[in-house]
Write a structure and sequence with these properties.
By secondary structure, the chain is an alpha+beta fold. Helices cover 23% and strands 24% of the residues. The chain is built from 2 helices and 5 strands; from the N terminus they run ββββαβα. A hairpin with a 5-residue loop joins strand 1 and strand 2.
Length: 103
């Protein structure tokens, strides 16, 4: 997981292990919208989010959990990669479950 400045505002993000969807930690569960994400500022609060991410990965709920830095005023991600993740996939995903590998 990323090392952020203690003064950074961050949220925990990951991918749902079953669907692959981008999810954000609310403090008790995962949401598909960043609007519901629990924000953390300071080393202790960020450490709490990191611990939650590790526990959720160990429970096989999500994969690739990491802290994502936000602009403290606008709440938008600082990194281009994260802003792109908010927009959604850059390719069309299959919608018919019979065509998917899980179908």
């Amino acid at each position: 997981m990323a090392k952020l400045k203690p003064t950074s505002t961050a949220v925990l993000t990951a991918n749902d292990l079953v669907t692959g969807a981008i999810v954000y930690w609310t403090g008790s569960d995962w949401a598909h919208s960043i609007a519901f994400a629990k924000r953390a500022t300071g080393s202790e609060a960020q450490g709490t989010l990191e611990a939650a991410g590790k526990a959720e990965e160990a429970s096989n709920v999500v994969v690739g959990a990491y802290l994502m830095a936000l602009d403290p005023v606008s709440g938008t991600p600082l990194e281009l990669r994260e802003r792109q993740r908010l927009v959604g996939p850059s390719i069309k995903l299959p919608t018919d479950t019979q065509d998917s590998a899980r179908g």
